[in-house]
Design brief:
The complex is a heterodimer. Chain A is mostly beta strands. Chain A has strands spanning 5-7, 10-13, 19-24, 31-37, 43-50, 53-56, 65-68, 75-79, 88-95, 107-108, 112-116. Chain A contains no helices and 11 strands. In chain B, strands 2, 5, 6, 10, 11 and 12 form a 6-stranded mixed beta sheet that branches. A 4-stranded antiparallel beta sheet of chain B has the order 3-9-8-7, with no helix packed on it. In chain B, strands 1-4 form a two-stranded antiparallel ribbon. Chain B is globular and about 45 Å long. The chains are: A mainly beta, B mainly beta.
Chain lengths: 117, 114
């Protein structure tokens, strides 16, 4: 029973390129959350998705960042025209329940560490 | 709005010594509280959670935490630490406004020395 799978584990991009981060939730989980961890900081919420729907994107930067969770396949966090400030660890988590049900805790992936050079 | 404050950014301690990692929260609604551990270059793993009931919560790896409503605290403790406990520890509380979103503290880096 695989956990939350994120790939790649490490991603290096030059400034101006695109970064695509993938997250496959645990089997049976239909709710996905993305968080960003900047160096020396805690995790900050970015976006909450269900299959084919964005439920809460209040933590997403207004430009260059987008997320999707299609009916088939993993959730994708896409960063266009990356800048050095995008360098961070990006974590995905999944749960069986959304809303208040997720208050019972959810499962995190191992993260993708993005380095922009 | 809710917030989580972890009072110590770094806690160095010798092996087999006791440790307490402090967490204070602010929330105007029913409180759920979590502690997560992050080992180097890994994701977050749930250590323990308080949902209701007994205020003393036992978690994995010998850790426990006590929910104190009057002091709005949820401090994490272990009576005797091991080298392998070296990691970053995060306290978290669910967002009041949006279901499922967690608010994290800044983290406490526990460094266990031989």
């Amino acid at each position: 029973n695989a956990g939350v799978m994120q790939n790649p584990r490490h991603l290096v991009r030059r400034r101006g390129q695109e970064a695509r981060l993938r997250c496959s939730p645990m089997k049976g989980h239909s709710h996905v959350y993305w968080y960003r961890q900047l160096p020396e900081e805690g995790l900050k919420f970015m976006v909450y998705l269900q299959k084919e729907n964005i439920i809460d994107e209040s933590g997403m930067p207004k430009e260059r960042f987008s997320a999707e969770f299609p009916k088939e396949g993993p959730s994708i966090l896409r960063i266009q025209q990356v800048v050095r400030g995008d360098s961070a660890a990006y974590f995905c988590a999944s749960s069986t329940l959304g809303g208040q049900g997720a208050n019972y805790g959810y499962t995190f992936g191992s993260g993708t560490r993005l380095t922009v050079v | 709005a809710q917030s989580v404050t972890q009072l110590d950014s770094q806690v160095p301690v010798f092996e087999e010594a006791p440790v307490e990692l402090r967490c204070n929260y602010s929330s105007s609604v029913s409180v759920y509280l979590f502690w997560y551990v992050q080992y180097p270059n890994q994701g977050l793993q749930l250590l323990l959670k308080y949902l209701s009931g007994s205020t003393l919560v036992k978690g994995i790896n010998g850790f426990e935490a006590e929910f104190n409503k009057s002091q709005t605290s949820f401090h994490l403790r272990k009576p005797s630490v091991h080298i392998s406990d070296t990691a970053e520890y995060f306290c978290a509380v669910p967002s009041e406004n949006q279901g499922g979103k967690l608010i994290f503290g800044q983290g406490t880096e526990l460094s266990v020395k031989p």
